[in-house]
Design brief:
The complex is a heterodimer. Chain A has helices spanning 22-36, 43-69, 91-110, 124-140, 144-163, 168-199, 204-210, 216-234, 242-246, 252-277, 279-306, 310-329, 334-365, 376-379, 381-395, 403-415, 421-450, 471-492, 495-509, 512-518, and strands spanning 72-75, 86-89. Chain A is mostly helical. Chain B is mostly helical. Chain B is built from five helices and two strands, in the order H-H-H-H-E-E-H. In chain B, a hairpin with a 2-residue loop joins strand 1 (96-101) and strand 2 (104-109). The chains are: A mainly alpha, B mainly alpha. The interface between A and B is medium-sized, with 30 and 24 residues.
């Protein structure tokens, strides 16, 4: 009898490694449990909060462990990688997963303003947890097919969330959102089939090992297909039309969750696939990436300037942020990738907060269009301050959070002489984006808060009559305030974040530790 | 559709399909079958029952909300995966136990519980869809 190669992991798995799996499993099982109890009053909300707190605890310990010991991997079912499905957390994935769980917790608390107290069994909390499971799974997986599965989980949950309420406007938004996202996941699946046919593996660490030996033209075709699929998910120009057409239709809480998480998963997948998995193909695609980045950076804030519907305008800010991430992708040095990574982290926190503040503005003014708003500053100063801080953070004004990743991106463009025209073009586009975003943001600020009253009203100095805040609105205001405070504090003490970002970027560019963590370093396949 | 013949035969068809679905689910580990196909057969029987005797009767007979069954299925599958925590193995590692009952040996395993979970998910989800499509009035799922 011939000696078969070993197929199973023989060493015992430490219980401490389970911090990698538990965030996903807790979210998934929490979603299922809340589906069972969805008609009991108050239980889903409380259950969701408890589950997310548990997830955050696991992810904090996961992040600490990855910071001190490097990437952590676990391959399901005791099979040896690349045959078993690996979950692998490196610094980038662990940090994003933590940020995602934190904003989800805030959104669950905030969402109470849209809910009338008795849970009608619409399964809102269940779907939020399912969405979190999909997002966390995407950030922590080490397998491309598994990433596709988590994309589908996110898609199912987001469909449920975007139509819950069932107004015609929402269905209209859901059709646009759904069609383009289905197209993107189909393209992704197509790319996966080609990858498996070409390389014989879908394990990310294994792809990094075997991709350099494969046919360069074929692998670049796959990278281009992935760029198209993830670009659509991330709403990069010219595939961004679905985002402003759909993100304003559901409730503000759902919009905030989508803006903070969904496009960022697309951006993360771009970062992972183009820079970490297929760096040679990225070099060939660099002009494409650069043009996409510049177009997204410049066109998105122009859309925001032209828009009067408040939440649609904010949607263009989300797209502009994707441009900054693409700029990092087209400058693949440690500083550029760190800038892109920290920008994603910043955008998860700041975009969610911005949508929630906008939701509060809508609740207090009873309007959704900036033409019907005005004079809010005199009526509610705290709300104006939150909005202003977030606009500055999104535009990248120091010392707010958004400034640091953009500074890193500018540094990457200026310092790296090898980049040639790309570096210079990125610097110009980033600065232009910051200025245009600032113009769009201050224009919104001036319309909503600064001028005396709604459009066409006489210039009276009376502050606008607001809907008086209910206790729920006060609570929502408190949780959003806490998130904004977090954004401000991170902006004031950015050093730990920048250091983690640079170490994460180093691991992305030189994936030796990542491959070793999965257990493929020996190359005994 | 609602003929006397159909209404008389429906309970028999439903009972046979439900028993068969359990059989298909349990044989699935080594032979064609499994939780997914078993759940589909069971959900089809619920659809037949709904056509014959009306959705309210089916809901009374099920006693539990179909979507709650689906949620329970995911929970069961999740616990089946978590069990490997206790044998110091990665998530989803299968654990086998052989029950000796006189002459026969009954193999019990965590994949079986996972499969039963899948059965519940498919059964619950598709029954909910089928009942919603069959019911005449607007209903609150």
């Amino acid at each position: 009898m011939t000696e078969l190669p070993q197929a199973m992991i023989e060493t015992a798995t430490s219980a401490a490694d389970w911090v990698l799996v538990l965030p996903i499993v807790l979210a998934l099982m929490g979603a299922a449990a809340l589906l069972v109890v969805r008609r009991s009053n108050g239980v889903p909300m409380l259950g969701a909060v408890l589950v997310i707190v548990g997830i955050i605890a696991c992810e904090i310990s996961l992040l600490l462990r990855v910071v001190s010991e490097g990437p952590l991997s676990m391959t399901m079912g005791k099979w040896l990688p690349p045959f078993g499905i690996s979950l692998t957390a490196d610094l980038l994935g662990a940090a994003f997963a933590l940020a995602a769980a934190v904003v989800t917790l805030i959104v669950v608390l905030y969402a109470e303003i849209d809910r009338d107290g008795n849970d009608s069994g619409d399964g809102f909390h269940s779907m939020v947890l399912l969405l979190l499971a999909g997002v966390t799974g995407s950030f922590l997986t080490g397998d491309l097919f598994n990433l596709y599965v988590w994309f589908e989980v996110m898609l199912i949950a987001s469909f449920g969330l975007i139509v819950s309420g069932g107004t015609p406007l929402q269905l209209d938004g859901a059709v646009k959102y759904g069609f383009l996202n289905f197209l993107a996941t189909t393209l992704f699946l197509l790319a996966l089939g080609l990858t498996y046919g070409l390389l014989g593996t879908l394990n990310m660490a294994d792809i990094i090992r075997v991709a350099p030996e494969a046919n360069r033209a074929a692998i670049t075709g796959i990278a281009a297909l992935l760029l198209l699929a993830f670009g659509m998910k991330a709403a990069a120009f010219p595939l961004n039309a679905w985002l402003p057409a759909s993100y304003h239709t559901p409730s503000a809480a759902v919009s905030a969750l989508f803006a903070g998480l969904l496009t960022k998963v697309g951006a993360y997948a771009l970062l992972r696939s183009q820079v970490a998995l297929l760096p040679d193909s990225r070099d060939l695609l660099e002009p494409v990436l650069a043009v996409l980045a510049i177009a997204t950076l410049v066109i998105a804030p122009l859309g925001a300037i032209a828009e009067t519907q408040l939440r649609r305008a904010i949607g263009f800010f989300v797209i502009g942020g994707i441009g900054a991430i693409l700029a990092g992708l087209s400058m693949p040095n440690v500083i550029g990738i760190a800038g892109a990574g920290i920008y994603i982290f910043h955008a998860i926190l700041a975009m969610t907060a911005l949508y929630m503040v906008v939701g509060l503005v809508e609740v207090r003014t009873g309007a959704r269009d900036t033409r019907q708003m005005g004079g809010l500053y005199a009526a509610s100063a705290p709300l104006s301050i939150l909005f202003f801080v977030l606009i500055l953070a999104v535009a990248g004004v120091p010392p707010f959070l958004g400034f640091w990743p953009k500074l890193l991106l500018l540094e990457a463009g200026v310092m790296d002489a090898e980049l040639g025209w790309v570096g210079t073009a990125m610097v110009v586009a980033l600065v232009l984006n910051a200025i245009l975003t600032l113009i769009a943001g201050t224009r919104l600020w001036a319309h909503i808060f600064w001028r005396n009253g709604p459009e066409g009203s006489p210039g009276s100095s009376e502050p606008m009559a607001l809907v008086p805040p209910t206790p729920k609105v006060r609570m929502a205001f408190t949780v959003v305030g806490a998130l904004v405070l977090g954004v401000v504090l991170l902006g004031l003490w950015p050093n730990p974040m920048i250091e983690v970002g640079q170490r994460a970027a180093a691991d992305i560019i030189d994936p030796g530790r990542y491959i070793e963590a999965v257990g493929l370093a020996g190359g005994a396949s | 559709m609602n003929t006397v013949i159909f209404r008389t035969a429906a309970p028999l068809i439903v009972a046979t399909m439900l028993v068969f679905s359990v059989y298909v689910c349990l044989r699935g580990h080594n032979e064609p079958g499994g939780g997914f196909i078993g759940g589909l057969i069971a959900a089809a029987s619920i659809a037949v029952f709904g056509m014959a005797s009306g959705v309210p009767a089916v809901r009374r007979a099920l006693k539990v909300d179909p979507l709650a069954i689906a949620g329970f299925g995911v929970l069961l599958a999740g616990f089946a995966g978590l069990a490997s925590l206790f044998i110091h193995a990665p998530f989803m590692t299968s654990i086998w136990m052989y029950l000796h009952l006189g002459e026969t040996v009954v193999p019990l395993s965590t994949p079986m519980f996972f499969d039963i979970g899948v059965y519940c998910v498919v059964f619950g989800t598709l029954s909910a869809v089928a009942l919603a499509l069959e019911s005449d009035e607007e209903e609150d799922l």
